[in-house]
Design brief:
Elements lengths: L1 E5 L4 H18 L4 E5 L3 E7 L2 E12 L5 E5 L4 H12 L3 E6 L13 H6 L2 H9 L4 E4 L13 E3 L6 H4 L12 E8 L13 H7 L5 E8 L3 H5 L6 E3 L5 H11 L2 E4 L13 H8 L3 E4 L3 H6 L3 E2 L3 H13 L1 H18 L2 H26 L1
Parallel strand pairs: 1-2, 1-5, 5-6, 6-7, 7-8, 9-10, 9-12, 10-11, 12-13, 13-14
Antiparallel strand pairs: 3-4
Helix pairs in contact: 1-13, 6-11
Keywords: Transferase
InterPro entries: YkvP/CgeB_Glyco_trans-like (IPR055259)
GO molecular function: transferase activity
């Protein structure tokens, strides 16, 4: 079976939901040939029904694929591609890893995805697919008539086998968060005063750092000192390496809202893979993963961070155990068959639909 994966421009989603699954499936020898590329080869022309209107997709090249996967399609042209591919007998999978119509006001994508309706279009496209693959169970609501498959995020073995953070013995411990405040406008505040309490108890021995764009994080958290800001690393392997090189303790606070209830367990998984002890919110996905120290109230954050700073042996023991769990069950090689099975199912769904329509 030949599968063509067409990717988004978002580096993280492309890496975890397209490039690395393709690599894992090919390496597993599952009888699936996978090609990854950005976009589809199309022919645009006037619509015969509206010759003075905008150009529409009149032809699309499946490049010999039995299954084409569209990652986060958000345009009318992608809907036209989906319909043309299905008319050729090609199965179409839509890959979603976010609830695109639930971004809260204040999120940097809210204007385009919510107010301008781009997210609604993406969800409408998903409902015409032969199958939808998602990163979390809550996203199955966008699958057409139950034709959805959850394939959880996983980590490549080469990342999980990098030298773990817990092998270091730094003089100053770094409590770190990876992200951009613009796309997490309310999450850091879930810690309340917990982070500052822990830092206050260990002056000169612990600091807070952000790998990404700190923005006004210091103001939001009412910190006595601005966080250290490490520049974002666009290369995902480089980013994963940086997590283990920069952070000793990782934090994953999430406001429990509709958007975040669909977010995957990726952040605590990444911390754990790199041997970084983590403290995280009790979101359903983080609970399902079961890695990291659970914190709900400010005093929970203060207690967990304080112990991690003060008790190095406990911190390393917890981090090492979490990393072993990643190696045992959360690598891309463990999810390869799930991806291949989903694509096979899409092929079967399209064959069935074509027979009914014949």
């Amino acid at each position: 079976m030949n599968v063509l994966l067409t990717t988004t421009v978002f580096t993280g989603s492309m890496y975890h939901r397209m490039a690395e699954p393709a690599r894992a499936v090919e390496e597993a020898g599952l009888g699936v040939s996978v090609t990854v590329q950005h976009g589809l080869q199309t022919v645009m022309a006037p619509d015969p029904a509206d010759p003075d209107g905008p150009l529409v997709v009149r032809e699309v090249d499946a490049q010999g694929a039995d299954v084409v996967v569209l990652q986060l399609p958000k345009t009318r042209e992608m809907l036209q591609c989906l319909r043309l591919l299905q008319a050729q007998g090609v199965a179409v999978v839509v890959e979603l890893d976010d609830h695109l119509t639930a971004l809260p006001p204040g999120h940097q994508g809210h204007e385009v995805l919510v107010r301008r309706g781009v997210g609604r279009l993406a969800e409408a496209i998903a409902r015409e697919a032969d199958l939808v693959t998602v990163s979390t169970p809550n996203l199955l609501q966008f699958a057409p008539r139950g034709r959805g498959v959850v394939v959880p995020n996983a980590i490549p073995r080469r990342v999980a086998e990098l030298p773990p953070a817990y092998e270091r013995e730094p003089d100053v411990l770094t409590v770190g968060w990876a992200g951009t405040v613009g796309s997490h406008p309310y999450d850091l505040q879930e810690m309340g005063s917990g982070l500052q309490q822990a830092l206050d108890r260990h002056p000169g021995h612990a600091r807070f750092a952000i790998l990404g764009q700190a923005g006004n994080a210091g103001e939001r958290l009412r910190l006595s000192e601005e966080p250290v800001e490490f520049p974002w690393v666009m290369d995902v392997d480089g980013y994963a390496a940086a997590l283990g090189e920069r952070f000793d303790i990782g934090i994953a606070p999430l406001r429990l809202d509709t958007f975040n209830s669909c977010k995957s367990w990726l952040k605590p998984l990444e911390y754990s893979a790199r041997g970084v002890f983590s403290v995280r919110s009790p979101s359903a996905e983080y609970e399902r993963l079961g890695l990291g120290y659970r914190a709900k109230r400010p005093r929970d954050w203060a207690t967990a961070l304080t112990r991690a700073i003060e008790d190095a042996d406990w911190r390393r023991e917890q981090a090492a155990a979490a990393r072993e769990q990643v190696l045992a069950r959360h690598l891309t090689e463990h999810t390869a068959e799930l991806w291949a099975a989903a694509w096979r199912r899409a092929r079967e769904e399209r064959t069935r639909a074509d027979r009914i329509g014949a």
